[in-house]
Amino acid sequence: MRQRVMEYIGEIRGLDQTAVEAAKQHINNLTVPPGSLGKLAAMAQQLAGITGQVKPSFDRREVIIMAGDHGVCEEGVSAFPQEVTPQMIHNFLAGGAAVNVLARQAGADVVCVDIGVNSEISHPDLLSRKIRYGTANMAQGPAMSYDEAVQSILVGVKVVEDAVKRGIQLFITGEMGIGNTTASSAVICALTDIPVVDAVGRGTGIDDARLQHKISVVEQALKVNAPDPLDPVDVLAKVGGLEIGGLAGVILGAAVHGCPVIIDGFISSAAALLAKSICPDAADYMIVSHASHEQGHRRLLQEMDLHPALELDLRIGEGTGGVLCLHLVDAACRIVREMATFESAGISGETKEQAQ
Fold it and tell me: Which part of the chain has CATH 3.40.50.10210?
């Protein structure tokens, strides 16, 4: 099964540098002072490199919310009970969550995938891809088996494949699962040199005492399981989550199909770290939407050399920040498609040289 993942990621290539350079030249000829478009210009060049098109557009876009539960909740690491996971899934499916509201505004579809919720959920719009009923308690042993970790990645890959067949061109990562900031922190510490005390945050809003307990739980999980930093799948299996693996698969799947993938917050970024650890070229396809209020997020983005587009102090998952970033993606695309060049605007070469 692991071989299937390795064969799949062999199809991922780096950015189309010819398209990147063509987009750069086009942007340099737009009727603005050089360098004035900042991150929008950088995003436009990245999108060109991903798609091979100087003037891409993404009319069909989809938020993929991976949902799974975590056995580590037995340790009391969250301010909310595990029952909230299925309740929020029904909220997503009813269109009432923050991500649904903002997705409607941005013209994106929302798909929810049950990859490991610890209860039965039945709904005609739910993608049921359950691998197991939640992970085991990683503070006492591995969160899941190695094969289950690989399977979670392949679920994400397959969800993207099916979406691409339906015409989806861009993906946004989203997640739901009480306890997933604990698992994400453990994954990050296992794969980087970031200390546990810097990676673990307040998640759903825990107090100081519970924060210290959460730190000790992550430290215990890492000690008990000794995940291998040279094998990201081993890290996922021992201290990760099913939805984290599913999102890593979404990112890898998007890269294989030449689609941009907007990374949401802390949990999505842990999945992005996994995906990059499995295949470094996958990072070329990532657009980081925002730096969340979760304390380990900014440190992780620095570790991955990724730069957030927004600073909103969000502490919410679901894909919320990712959907907000869609407006910037649209802006970058419209700039290169619709803005006049010096030539098309009839501005003389001399005036252009003065502007530059």
Answer: 61-330
**Hey, is 32 helix, strand or coil?**
coil
The torsion of the CA quartet 291, 153, 73, 194, rounded to 10 degrees, works out to -50
Query: Which residue in 294, 318, 343, 353 is the catalytic one?
Result: 318
β-bridge partners, 30: 341
CA angle 282, 275, 330 (to 5 degrees): 55
Residue 295 confidence (pLDDT): 87
- Is 74 in the active site? no
pLDDT over threshold 80, residue 355: no
Torsions phi, psi for 115 (to 5 deg): -100, -15
Q: What are phi and psi of 91, to 5 degrees?
A: -65, -45
Count how many residues are written for the chain.
356
Contact criterion met (CB below 8 Å) for 166 and 127: no
- The model carries a pTM of 0.95
Closest CA to 64 of 19, 13, 27, 115: 115
Q: Give the CATH number of domain 61-330.
A: 3.40.50.10210
Q: Over the stretch 68-115, which tens digit does the pLDDT of each residue have? A: 999 999 999 988 889 999 999 999 999 999 999 999 999 999 999 999
Alpha-carbon distance of 132 to 114, in angstroms, equals: 10
Give the residue range(s) of CATH 1.10.1610.10 domains in the chain.
2-55+336-355
Architecture of domain 2-55+336-355: Orthogonal Bundle (1.10)
